[in-house]
Write the C-alpha coordinates for this entry.
Amino acid sequence: MGGDIIKRKEENVVTEALASCRYLLRHRGGLQIPLLNKTLDTLRIGKKVIHLDNHIPALLQDTFDNLGYEQRDGTRPVLAAKRKTAYGWHLIWQLPPGVSFNDIKAHKQYFQDACNSWIELEWKHGKCHMNVQAGELPEMVPYHWEPGHYESMSLPIPVGYSRVNLYVFDLVDSPHFLIGGSTGYGKTSLERVIIHSLIDRAVIVIIDFKQVDLEYLRDRIILAVTDEEALAILEALNREYERRIQLLRRYKVTKIQEYPHPEEMPFIVVIVDELAELDDRCKERIDRLARLARATGISLIVASQRTSTKVVSGDTRFNFVARICYKVPSPADFRVILGEDCGLAGDLPSTKGRCIFRFGLETVELQSMHLPIHEAMKLLLPDQRRWDAHVKPDRPDRDKLEVKRLAPR
Protein backbone atom coordinates (compact mmCIF):
# COMPACT_ATOMS: atom_id res chain seq x y z
CA MET A 1 0.00 0.00 0.00
CA GLY A 2 2.76 2.37 1.04
CA GLY A 3 4.70 1.52 -2.10
CA ASP A 4 1.72 2.41 -4.32
CA ILE A 5 1.40 5.82 -2.64
CA ILE A 6 5.10 6.54 -3.11
CA LYS A 7 4.85 5.41 -6.74
CA ARG A 8 1.89 7.71 -7.41
CA LYS A 9 3.72 10.61 -5.81
CA GLU A 10 6.75 9.94 -7.98
CA GLU A 11 4.51 9.81 -11.08
CA ASN A 12 2.90 13.13 -10.08
CA VAL A 13 6.31 14.73 -9.64
CA VAL A 14 7.40 13.50 -13.07
CA THR A 15 4.12 14.69 -14.67
CA GLU A 16 4.42 18.14 -13.08
CA ALA A 17 8.07 18.38 -14.12
CA LEU A 18 7.20 17.51 -17.72
CA ALA A 19 4.33 20.02 -17.69
CA SER A 20 6.70 22.71 -16.38
CA CYS A 21 9.22 21.87 -19.09
CA ARG A 22 6.54 22.10 -21.77
CA TYR A 23 5.37 25.43 -20.34
CA LEU A 24 8.90 26.85 -20.23
CA LEU A 25 9.57 25.64 -23.76
CA ARG A 26 6.33 27.19 -25.05
CA HIS A 27 6.90 30.47 -23.17
CA ARG A 28 10.61 30.67 -23.84
CA GLY A 29 12.16 34.13 -23.85
CA GLY A 30 15.08 35.44 -25.83
CA LEU A 31 18.60 34.11 -25.30
CA GLN A 32 20.54 36.40 -22.98
CA ILE A 33 24.22 36.98 -23.90
CA PRO A 34 25.74 38.84 -20.93
CA LEU A 35 29.16 39.35 -22.53
CA LEU A 36 27.62 41.18 -25.49
CA ASN A 37 24.90 42.80 -23.37
CA LYS A 38 22.20 41.78 -25.85
CA THR A 39 19.31 39.37 -26.29
CA LEU A 40 18.84 37.10 -29.30
CA ASP A 41 15.22 36.75 -30.41
CA THR A 42 15.87 34.39 -33.34
CA LEU A 43 18.36 31.71 -34.25
CA ARG A 44 19.04 30.65 -37.84
CA ILE A 45 20.05 27.07 -38.65
CA GLY A 46 20.44 26.90 -42.39
CA LYS A 47 17.17 28.16 -43.87
CA LYS A 48 15.21 27.45 -40.71
CA VAL A 49 14.47 30.28 -38.25
CA ILE A 50 13.91 29.37 -34.60
CA HIS A 51 12.15 32.03 -32.54
CA LEU A 52 13.85 32.11 -29.16
CA ASP A 53 11.32 34.67 -27.89
CA ASN A 54 7.99 32.85 -28.06
CA HIS A 55 6.14 34.46 -25.16
CA ILE A 56 3.29 36.20 -27.03
CA PRO A 57 2.47 33.26 -29.37
CA ALA A 58 2.46 31.02 -26.29
CA LEU A 59 0.04 33.29 -24.44
CA LEU A 60 -2.32 33.20 -27.41
CA GLN A 61 -2.06 29.40 -27.61
CA ASP A 62 -2.86 29.24 -23.88
CA THR A 63 -5.90 31.45 -24.51
CA PHE A 64 -7.18 29.07 -27.19
CA ASP A 65 -6.73 26.16 -24.79
CA ASN A 66 -8.37 27.87 -21.83
CA LEU A 67 -11.37 29.01 -23.88
CA GLY A 68 -12.14 25.39 -24.67
CA TYR A 69 -11.50 25.27 -28.41
CA GLU A 70 -10.35 21.64 -28.31
CA GLN A 71 -12.82 19.49 -30.27
CA ARG A 72 -14.16 16.02 -29.43
CA ASP A 73 -11.64 14.35 -31.70
CA GLY A 74 -8.80 16.10 -29.87
CA THR A 75 -8.05 18.65 -32.61
CA ARG A 76 -7.49 22.28 -31.64
CA PRO A 77 -6.34 25.53 -33.31
CA VAL A 78 -2.76 25.04 -34.51
CA LEU A 79 -0.18 27.75 -35.07
CA ALA A 80 0.63 27.15 -38.74
CA ALA A 81 3.14 29.98 -39.19
CA LYS A 82 4.60 32.89 -37.28
CA ARG A 83 6.72 35.86 -38.24
CA LYS A 84 8.24 38.59 -36.10
CA THR A 85 7.42 42.07 -37.41
CA ALA A 86 8.58 45.58 -36.60
CA TYR A 87 5.51 46.09 -34.43
CA GLY A 88 5.01 42.62 -32.92
CA TRP A 89 3.93 39.36 -34.57
CA HIS A 90 2.06 38.06 -37.59
CA LEU A 91 0.53 34.69 -36.67
CA ILE A 92 -1.44 32.29 -38.86
CA TRP A 93 -3.74 29.77 -37.18
CA GLN A 94 -5.27 26.68 -38.74
CA LEU A 95 -8.74 26.25 -37.24
CA PRO A 96 -10.20 22.72 -36.95
CA PRO A 97 -13.72 21.87 -38.21
CA GLY A 98 -16.26 23.17 -35.72
CA VAL A 99 -14.35 26.35 -34.80
CA SER A 100 -15.69 29.49 -36.47
CA PHE A 101 -13.60 32.55 -37.32
CA ASN A 102 -16.53 34.71 -36.19
CA ASP A 103 -16.31 33.03 -32.79
CA ILE A 104 -12.62 33.92 -32.61
CA LYS A 105 -13.53 37.54 -33.41
CA ALA A 106 -16.16 37.53 -30.67
CA HIS A 107 -13.43 36.53 -28.18
CA LYS A 108 -10.89 39.03 -29.50
CA GLN A 109 -10.77 40.89 -26.21
CA TYR A 110 -9.60 37.75 -24.37
CA PHE A 111 -6.64 37.41 -26.72
CA GLN A 112 -5.76 41.10 -26.39
CA ASP A 113 -5.90 40.97 -22.60
CA ALA A 114 -3.75 37.82 -22.51
CA CYS A 115 -0.82 39.43 -24.32
CA ASN A 116 -1.52 43.09 -23.45
CA SER A 117 -1.48 43.98 -27.14
CA TRP A 118 -3.76 45.23 -29.87
CA ILE A 119 -4.80 42.48 -32.29
CA GLU A 120 -6.19 42.72 -35.81
CA LEU A 121 -7.94 39.62 -37.17
CA GLU A 122 -8.39 38.62 -40.81
CA TRP A 123 -9.70 35.50 -42.54
CA LYS A 124 -7.54 34.76 -45.56
CA HIS A 125 -7.04 31.62 -47.64
CA GLY A 126 -8.93 29.50 -45.13
CA LYS A 127 -6.81 30.50 -42.15
CA CYS A 128 -7.05 32.96 -39.26
CA HIS A 129 -4.43 35.70 -39.51
CA MET A 130 -3.50 37.65 -36.37
CA ASN A 131 -1.53 40.88 -36.52
CA VAL A 132 -0.35 41.46 -32.96
CA GLN A 133 0.78 45.00 -32.17
CA ALA A 134 2.87 44.49 -29.06
CA GLY A 135 4.28 48.01 -28.76
CA GLU A 136 3.13 50.54 -26.20
CA LEU A 137 1.05 53.57 -27.15
CA PRO A 138 2.61 56.90 -26.18
CA GLU A 139 0.78 58.83 -23.48
CA MET A 140 1.17 62.25 -25.11
CA VAL A 141 2.05 63.18 -28.69
CA PRO A 142 2.61 66.85 -29.64
CA TYR A 143 1.11 68.04 -32.92
CA HIS A 144 3.45 67.57 -35.86
CA TRP A 145 2.18 67.34 -39.39
CA GLU A 146 3.94 66.85 -42.73
CA PRO A 147 1.14 67.13 -45.33
CA GLY A 148 3.57 66.70 -48.20
CA HIS A 149 3.75 62.96 -47.38
CA TYR A 150 0.04 62.58 -48.19
CA GLU A 151 -0.41 64.46 -51.47
CA SER A 152 -2.45 61.56 -52.88
CA MET A 153 -5.19 62.32 -50.31
CA SER A 154 -7.69 65.14 -50.83
CA LEU A 155 -8.43 65.87 -47.16
CA PRO A 156 -5.86 64.01 -45.01
CA ILE A 157 -6.46 64.04 -41.24
CA PRO A 158 -3.77 62.78 -38.82
CA VAL A 159 -6.17 61.00 -36.47
CA GLY A 160 -3.50 59.71 -34.09
CA TYR A 161 -0.70 57.23 -33.47
CA SER A 162 -1.30 53.50 -33.30
CA ARG A 163 1.26 51.03 -31.95
CA VAL A 164 2.65 50.89 -35.48
CA ASN A 165 2.67 54.38 -36.97
CA LEU A 166 0.71 57.58 -37.57
CA TYR A 167 -2.83 56.80 -38.75
CA VAL A 168 -3.93 59.24 -41.46
CA PHE A 169 -7.51 59.22 -42.70
CA ASP A 170 -8.80 60.84 -45.92
CA LEU A 171 -12.06 62.58 -45.04
CA VAL A 172 -13.46 62.26 -48.58
CA ASP A 173 -13.57 58.50 -48.09
CA SER A 174 -16.24 58.83 -45.42
CA PRO A 175 -16.97 61.88 -45.83
CA HIS A 176 -18.62 62.52 -42.44
CA PHE A 177 -16.91 62.07 -39.07
CA LEU A 178 -18.47 61.58 -35.62
CA ILE A 179 -16.49 62.39 -32.44
CA GLY A 180 -17.64 61.48 -28.93
CA GLY A 181 -16.21 61.51 -25.43
CA SER A 182 -16.30 63.12 -22.02
CA THR A 183 -15.00 66.62 -21.40
CA GLY A 184 -11.24 66.93 -20.97
CA TYR A 185 -10.13 63.81 -22.85
CA GLY A 186 -9.18 65.30 -26.23
CA LYS A 187 -12.17 66.21 -28.41
CA THR A 188 -11.36 69.92 -28.70
CA SER A 189 -7.66 69.22 -29.27
CA LEU A 190 -8.59 66.83 -32.10
CA GLU A 191 -10.82 69.52 -33.62
CA ARG A 192 -7.86 71.91 -33.66
CA VAL A 193 -5.67 69.20 -35.23
CA ILE A 194 -8.28 68.70 -37.96
CA ILE A 195 -8.67 72.43 -38.60
CA HIS A 196 -4.96 73.16 -38.88
CA SER A 197 -4.40 70.09 -41.05
CA LEU A 198 -7.12 71.12 -43.53
CA ILE A 199 -7.13 74.93 -43.36
CA ASP A 200 -5.19 75.27 -46.63
CA ARG A 201 -7.20 72.59 -48.42
CA ALA A 202 -10.83 73.41 -47.65
CA VAL A 203 -13.31 76.03 -46.55
CA ILE A 204 -13.65 75.54 -42.79
CA VAL A 205 -17.04 76.22 -41.20
CA ILE A 206 -17.35 75.98 -37.41
CA ILE A 207 -20.42 76.05 -35.18
CA ASP A 208 -19.19 76.65 -31.63
CA PHE A 209 -21.64 77.96 -29.05
CA LYS A 210 -18.95 78.02 -26.34
CA GLN A 211 -17.53 81.04 -28.20
CA VAL A 212 -14.06 80.60 -26.66
CA ASP A 213 -12.03 77.63 -27.87
CA LEU A 214 -11.98 78.52 -31.58
CA GLU A 215 -12.42 82.30 -31.50
CA TYR A 216 -8.78 82.83 -32.52
CA LEU A 217 -9.68 81.43 -35.96
CA ARG A 218 -12.44 83.95 -36.71
CA ASP A 219 -10.46 85.72 -39.48
CA ARG A 220 -9.63 82.46 -41.21
CA ILE A 221 -12.89 80.54 -41.16
CA ILE A 222 -16.68 80.85 -41.06
CA LEU A 223 -17.61 80.89 -37.36
CA ALA A 224 -21.14 80.72 -35.91
CA VAL A 225 -21.64 81.28 -32.18
CA THR A 226 -25.43 81.75 -31.98
CA ASP A 227 -28.49 79.78 -33.08
CA GLU A 228 -29.37 82.28 -35.80
CA GLU A 229 -25.86 82.33 -37.23
CA ALA A 230 -25.77 78.54 -37.22
CA LEU A 231 -29.15 78.33 -38.95
CA ALA A 232 -28.10 80.89 -41.60
CA ILE A 233 -24.91 78.95 -42.35
CA LEU A 234 -26.64 75.57 -42.53
CA GLU A 235 -29.36 76.93 -44.83
CA ALA A 236 -26.64 78.42 -47.04
CA LEU A 237 -24.82 75.07 -47.11
CA ASN A 238 -28.00 73.26 -48.14
CA ARG A 239 -28.42 75.69 -51.03
CA GLU A 240 -24.75 75.27 -51.91
CA TYR A 241 -25.34 71.52 -52.02
CA GLU A 242 -28.22 72.02 -54.47
CA ARG A 243 -26.07 74.29 -56.67
CA ARG A 244 -23.30 71.72 -56.75
CA ILE A 245 -25.65 68.88 -57.62
CA GLN A 246 -26.87 70.82 -60.63
CA LEU A 247 -23.29 71.41 -61.78
CA LEU A 248 -22.40 67.75 -61.41
CA ARG A 249 -25.49 66.76 -63.41
CA ARG A 250 -24.69 69.31 -66.10
CA TYR A 251 -21.22 67.84 -66.61
CA LYS A 252 -22.48 64.26 -66.21
CA VAL A 253 -20.09 63.42 -63.34
CA THR A 254 -20.94 61.67 -60.09
CA LYS A 255 -18.57 63.27 -57.58
CA ILE A 256 -16.61 66.45 -56.96
CA GLN A 257 -13.25 64.89 -57.84
CA GLU A 258 -14.45 64.45 -61.43
CA TYR A 259 -15.69 68.04 -61.86
CA PRO A 260 -13.53 69.84 -64.49
CA HIS A 261 -13.47 73.25 -62.73
CA PRO A 262 -12.37 72.58 -59.12
CA GLU A 263 -12.02 76.31 -58.37
CA GLU A 264 -15.81 76.56 -58.59
CA MET A 265 -16.33 73.76 -56.10
CA PRO A 266 -13.78 73.75 -53.25
CA PHE A 267 -14.13 71.26 -50.41
CA ILE A 268 -16.16 72.51 -47.44
CA VAL A 269 -15.65 71.01 -43.96
CA VAL A 270 -18.31 71.80 -41.36
CA ILE A 271 -17.31 71.26 -37.71
CA VAL A 272 -20.04 71.20 -35.06
CA ASP A 273 -18.44 71.46 -31.61
CA GLU A 274 -21.45 70.21 -29.62
CA LEU A 275 -24.33 68.54 -31.42
CA ALA A 276 -26.56 68.55 -28.32
CA GLU A 277 -26.66 72.38 -28.26
CA LEU A 278 -28.24 72.73 -31.72
CA ASP A 279 -31.98 73.27 -32.00
CA ASP A 280 -34.22 71.04 -34.10
CA ARG A 281 -34.09 73.36 -37.12
CA CYS A 282 -30.30 73.09 -37.30
CA LYS A 283 -30.33 69.33 -36.70
CA GLU A 284 -32.78 68.82 -39.59
CA ARG A 285 -30.43 70.66 -41.96
CA ILE A 286 -27.40 68.74 -40.69
CA ASP A 287 -29.24 65.45 -41.23
CA ARG A 288 -30.06 66.49 -44.81
CA LEU A 289 -26.43 67.32 -45.57
CA ALA A 290 -25.30 64.05 -43.98
CA ARG A 291 -27.71 62.08 -46.17
CA LEU A 292 -27.23 63.86 -49.48
CA ALA A 293 -24.03 65.93 -49.66
CA ARG A 294 -21.55 63.05 -49.87
CA ALA A 295 -20.62 63.55 -53.55
CA THR A 296 -20.56 67.35 -53.51
CA GLY A 297 -17.49 67.92 -51.33
CA ILE A 298 -19.36 69.03 -48.19
CA SER A 299 -18.15 67.07 -45.15
CA LEU A 300 -19.50 67.13 -41.59
CA ILE A 301 -17.42 66.64 -38.46
CA VAL A 302 -19.80 66.45 -35.50
CA ALA A 303 -18.70 66.22 -31.86
CA SER A 304 -20.67 65.57 -28.69
CA GLN A 305 -19.91 64.88 -25.05
CA ARG A 306 -23.50 63.82 -24.41
CA THR A 307 -23.38 60.46 -26.15
CA SER A 308 -26.99 59.40 -25.71
CA THR A 309 -29.37 58.14 -28.38
CA LYS A 310 -31.44 61.30 -27.93
CA VAL A 311 -28.49 63.39 -29.10
CA VAL A 312 -26.94 60.95 -31.60
CA SER A 313 -29.88 59.06 -33.06
CA GLY A 314 -29.50 55.90 -35.10
CA ASP A 315 -30.49 57.73 -38.30
CA THR A 316 -27.80 60.38 -37.74
CA ARG A 317 -25.11 57.88 -36.77
CA PHE A 318 -25.76 55.73 -39.84
CA ASN A 319 -24.43 58.49 -42.13
CA PHE A 320 -21.14 58.81 -40.22
CA VAL A 321 -18.98 55.93 -41.40
CA ALA A 322 -15.89 57.29 -39.63
CA ARG A 323 -16.21 57.57 -35.83
CA ILE A 324 -13.90 58.20 -32.92
CA CYS A 325 -14.58 57.91 -29.21
CA TYR A 326 -12.61 59.02 -26.17
CA LYS A 327 -13.26 58.03 -22.56
CA VAL A 328 -16.98 57.91 -21.73
CA PRO A 329 -18.86 57.16 -18.48
CA SER A 330 -20.33 53.80 -19.48
CA PRO A 331 -20.24 51.03 -22.11
CA ALA A 332 -23.68 52.15 -23.33
CA ASP A 333 -22.33 55.62 -24.16
CA PHE A 334 -19.40 54.05 -25.98
CA ARG A 335 -21.64 51.90 -28.15
CA VAL A 336 -23.78 54.90 -29.12
CA ILE A 337 -20.74 56.28 -30.93
CA LEU A 338 -19.00 53.15 -32.22
CA GLY A 339 -21.95 50.79 -32.67
CA GLU A 340 -23.61 47.97 -30.76
CA ASP A 341 -21.12 45.39 -32.01
CA CYS A 342 -18.09 47.18 -30.59
CA GLY A 343 -17.06 45.52 -27.33
CA LEU A 344 -14.29 47.92 -26.34
CA ALA A 345 -16.45 49.98 -24.01
CA GLY A 346 -14.65 49.85 -20.68
CA ASP A 347 -11.11 49.28 -21.90
CA LEU A 348 -9.77 52.78 -22.48
CA PRO A 349 -7.43 54.06 -19.77
CA SER A 350 -7.97 57.51 -18.29
CA THR A 351 -5.26 58.94 -20.54
CA LYS A 352 -6.01 62.21 -22.28
CA GLY A 353 -5.98 61.70 -26.03
CA ARG A 354 -6.53 57.91 -25.88
CA CYS A 355 -9.34 56.90 -28.22
CA ILE A 356 -10.86 54.21 -30.41
CA PHE A 357 -11.19 55.02 -34.12
CA ARG A 358 -13.57 53.09 -36.32
CA PHE A 359 -13.93 53.32 -40.10
CA GLY A 360 -16.19 50.73 -41.67
CA LEU A 361 -15.06 47.35 -40.37
CA GLU A 362 -11.66 48.62 -39.19
CA THR A 363 -11.23 49.44 -35.49
CA VAL A 364 -7.99 50.64 -33.92
CA GLU A 365 -6.83 52.15 -30.63
CA LEU A 366 -4.98 55.45 -31.07
CA GLN A 367 -3.31 58.25 -29.16
CA SER A 368 -4.41 61.48 -30.80
CA MET A 369 -2.09 64.46 -31.11
CA HIS A 370 -2.11 67.18 -28.47
CA LEU A 371 -2.51 70.72 -29.80
CA PRO A 372 -3.13 73.32 -27.05
CA ILE A 373 -4.59 76.67 -28.07
CA HIS A 374 -1.38 78.67 -27.55
CA GLU A 375 0.50 76.31 -29.89
CA ALA A 376 -2.33 76.40 -32.42
CA MET A 377 -2.23 80.20 -32.55
CA LYS A 378 1.46 80.08 -33.50
CA LEU A 379 0.55 78.06 -36.60
CA LEU A 380 -1.45 80.95 -38.10
CA LEU A 381 1.40 82.61 -39.97
CA PRO A 382 0.52 85.61 -42.17
CA ASP A 383 2.16 84.13 -45.28
CA GLN A 384 -0.03 81.03 -45.31
CA ARG A 385 -2.78 80.71 -47.87
CA ARG A 386 -6.23 81.21 -46.43
CA TRP A 387 -9.87 80.94 -47.30
CA ASP A 388 -12.02 84.10 -47.10
CA ALA A 389 -15.49 82.69 -46.48
CA HIS A 390 -18.25 84.35 -44.53
CA VAL A 391 -21.99 84.81 -44.01
CA LYS A 392 -23.49 88.30 -43.90
CA PRO A 393 -26.42 87.99 -41.45
CA ASP A 394 -27.28 91.72 -41.60
CA ARG A 395 -28.26 91.67 -45.31
CA PRO A 396 -31.43 90.32 -46.96
CA ASP A 397 -29.31 87.61 -48.59
CA ARG A 398 -27.77 86.73 -45.22
CA ASP A 399 -27.98 83.03 -45.92
CA LYS A 400 -25.89 83.29 -49.07
CA LEU A 401 -22.54 81.59 -48.56
CA GLU A 402 -19.68 83.46 -50.23
CA VAL A 403 -16.55 81.43 -50.80
CA LYS A 404 -13.44 82.83 -52.42
CA ARG A 405 -9.94 81.45 -52.58
CA LEU A 406 -7.29 84.15 -52.07
CA ALA A 407 -3.76 84.03 -53.38
CA PRO A 408 -0.89 83.54 -50.93
CA ARG A 409 -0.02 86.69 -49.01
